[in-house]
Amino acid sequence: MNKIAVYPGSFDPITNGHLDIILRTSNIFDKVIVAVLENPDKKSHLFTAEERVNLIKKVTSNIPNIEVESFEGLLVNYVKKKNSSVIIRGLRAISDFEYEFQMTLMNRNLNPDIETFFMMTKTDYSYLSSSVIKQVAHFGGGIKGLVPDAIIDDIYNKIKESN
Ligand code: ADP
């Protein structure tokens, strides 16, 4: 049976923490769909959903079993539509746990056939988040080693543009 996993998130922008989860998941499942949440509150994001999808595509083009797209609405409905029954989430510190716990139980309540799997972060990336990257880049700090090299310029340029 073809096992498809869906890895949802904002990815605003993708970091090396996200990429590590994508790579490790792609070694386990036949196909991984990286699903970028199209938030109705557009102002809360630096990049549009389309731009976030393109940044992820740019740094995952060497992984054969990856698909990247954006989605709207309920995650469980999207997962079902993609013929999957697996949601992948990453866990960093204890602080992630409460939110993830709540979301997982809610999703199970909405569709008990869909399971959520958690991948523990790599120690090196345990402090990494998209928000921290944006803050550091905004003030001109170095982000090399924290996000894929290929998108560093895209991040600085977008921040300059949005100022
Ligand atoms: P959301 O906005 O849905 O929290 P994010 O784009 O911040 O989405 O992250 C998507 C998923 O990746 C979440 O499960 C988050 O916990 C996980 N994640 C984010 N950063 C890291 C990291 N550095 N290491 C491991 N997992 C991470």
From TrEMBL:
Top-level division of the source organism's lineage: Bacteria
Annotated keywords: ATP-binding, Coenzyme A biosynthesis, Cytoplasm, Magnesium, Nucleotide-binding, Nucleotidyltransferase, Transferase
Subcellular location: Cytoplasm
Pathway membership, UniProt: Cofactor biosynthesis; coenzyme A biosynthesis; CoA from (R)-pantothenate: step 4/5
Binding site for ATP: S10, F11, H18, G90, L91, R92, E100, Y125, S126, Y127, L128, S129, S130, S131
Function: Reversibly transfers an adenylyl group from ATP to 4'-phosphopantetheine, yielding dephospho-CoA (dPCoA) and pyrophosphate.
Protein known as: Phosphopantetheine adenylyltransferase
Organism of this sequence: Clostridium cylindrosporum DSM 605
Gene: coaD
